[in-house]
Amino acid sequence: MTGFQLSGAIRFPLLSGAILSLAVGRLSLVGVLLSILLSAGPYPATADERARKCVEDENNWCMQQKNYAATRYSTLDQINSKNARDLRMAWSFSTGVLGGHEGSPLVIGSMMYLHTPFPNVVYALNLDDENRIVWKYQPTQDANLVQGMCCEGVNRGLQYADGKLFLYQADTTLVALNPKTGQVIWKAPNGDPARGETGTGAVLVAGKVVIAGVSGGDQGARGFITGYDINSGQRLWRAYSSGPDAQTLFNPEKTTVLGKPVGANSGNPGGAGGGEAGNASGLGGGAPWGWFSWDPKLNLFYYGTGSPALGAGARETPSDAKWTSTIIARRPQTGDAVWAYQLTPSDVWGFDGVNEMILIDEAQIGGEKRDVLVHFDRNGFAYTIDRATGMPLVAERFDVAVNWASEIDLDAASPTFGRPKAIASLSELKTDAAAQTAQVCPASLGSKNQQPAAYSPMTKLFYVPASHVCMNFAVPAAAAAAAAGEAARKSGAAGVGQTPQPAASEASRPISTGPVAIPGPPVSMSPPKNDTHMGNLIAWDAVEGKAVWSNKEQFPIWSGVLTTAGGIACYGTLEGDFKCVDQKDGRELFRNRTPSGIVGNVFTYAHKGKQYIGVLSGIGGLPGLGIGSGGNDAKRTEQSPMAAALSGLRNYTAQGGSLTVWALP
Question: Do residues 119 and 154 make contact, with C-beta atoms less than 8 angstroms apart?
Answer without folding.
Answer: no
